[in-house]
Design brief:
With 344 residues, this protein is α/β, with parallel strands linked by helices. Helices cover 33% and strands 18% of the residues. It contains eleven helices and ten strands. The strands form two sheets. An eight-stranded mixed β-barrel has the order 3-4-5-6-7-8-9-10, surrounded by four helices. A two-stranded antiparallel ribbon has the order 1-2. Helix 7 packs parallel to helix 8.
Length: 344
């Protein structure tokens, strides 16, 4: 949602949103007494916190709006004790919009994926990994892909660790409040550190009309940035595995064609078996492919591909915990900039 400059209007809008979407009863009069410092030029969205099973209202930079609004107590002497006027998190309602439910499903599926990953045949060093040799006459670029799940990232250390490029999750689903909580921070800081950047959009679409909505939200999220790597349509969700090859292929075409019309270089991301079983030849031959297959020396995909995600359990200096590792086989910055795509 877009906030207006009137502070009183901002508060009433937030109150209405909480009361209708989350089923929370709040006295509006008490909120109107708060001193607001929220930047009205930024957008806001509802973010799910799986550890506490709660929701929080965040700015596009990941700052907590509700916390900023409430935690504005008067200045007191050192001897006094300052108590926040309200708790930071909002308890979830009994029923929530479908896209919030999908966010829950996304987190659960990502957790399941991490627990099911097999051992990767790589030797991990303190700062950056060594990887299986790939027979190719082209330069192989080292990359990672990240989302808010990687938390705060030291992008200068990532660059120093030898990473060439990063694919950053811009968001997921069909709603404007499903922009990844760390997207804007990640892409700004990664580009400032000198990394080549692309983005991906995680799909929950089950029809071409939903895929088109996702494409439009994706475009409006990324259009202010210059991207030297592709915009990838990430189609892999369990809700899509029961769909026919025709439906999956048509959804992919709708998403990718819309972004191509906006002059973006697109790519299709999924795991090897999904690409083989759910994508027809017209999709595989028309769009750039980013294939995922971990724990192997080569993906079991016979078609051509520009990137390969080969590990979900990599370690890179500057990032706490696991991160996905990728190889890039094309000079995407040259291709994209020479053709004046992706904002160039």
């Amino acid at each position: 949602m877009q906030f207006f400059k009137s502070k009183r209007f901002i508060v009433m809008t937030v109150v209405a949103f909480m009361m209708t979407s989350l089923g929370i009863t709040v006295k509006a009069e008490s909120l109107l007494d708060q001193t607001l410092t929220y930047d009205s030029n930024k957008s806001a969205f509802l973010n799910y916190d799986p550890e506490n099973d709660t929701y929080e209202l965040l700015t596009e930079d990941g700052d907590d709006i509700i916390y900023d609004m409430y935690d504005k107590t008067p200045e007191v002497t050192e001897a006094a004790v300052t108590t926040p006027a309200a708790t930071k998190y909002i308890s979830p309602a009994m029923t929530v919009p479908s896209y919030i439910g999908r966010l829950r499903a996304e987190i659960l599926s990502e957790r399941a994926l991490l627990t099911q990953t097999t051992t990767v045949s790589t030797t991990v060093k303190t700062t950056v990994k060594t990887t299986p040799k790939v027979t190719t006459t082209k330069k192989v670029y080292d990359g990672i892909d990240v989302s808010r799940h990687q938390g705060s990232i030291n992008w200068k250390k990532v660059k120093s660790a030898g990473i060439d490029f990063v694919m950053i999750r811009a968001g997921y689903g069909m709603e404007y409040d499903q922009v990844d909580a760390n997207f804007h921070t990640n892409i700004k800081n990664a580009q400032s550190a000198g990394l080549e950047c692309g983005v991906y959009w995680y799909s929950y679409a089950v029809s071409t009309s939903e895929a088109l909505k996702e494409a439009k939200v994706c475009y409006n999220t990324i259009k202010g940035y210059k991207l030297s790597y592709p915009v990838a349509f990430d189609i892999e969700d369990p809700s899509q595995t029961g769909l026919s090859m025709t439906t999956i292929s048509n959804m992919t075409k709708v998403f990718c064609d819309y972004l191509e019309q906006q002059k973006y270089f697109v790519s299709v991301y999924s795991y090897a078996s999904f690409l083989k079983d759910k994508m027809n030849s017209s999709v595989l031959s028309k769009y750039d492919i980013w294939v995922a297959h971990t724990g192997v020396s080569k993906p079991s995909f016979t078609g051509s591909y520009g990137m390969w995600q080969y590990s979900h359990t990599g370690r890179v200096n500057g990032i706490s915990g696991n991160v996905d590792l990728n190889y890039g086989y094309k000079n995407y910055p040259s291709i994209i900039t020479s053709n004046k795509l992706n904002g160039y």
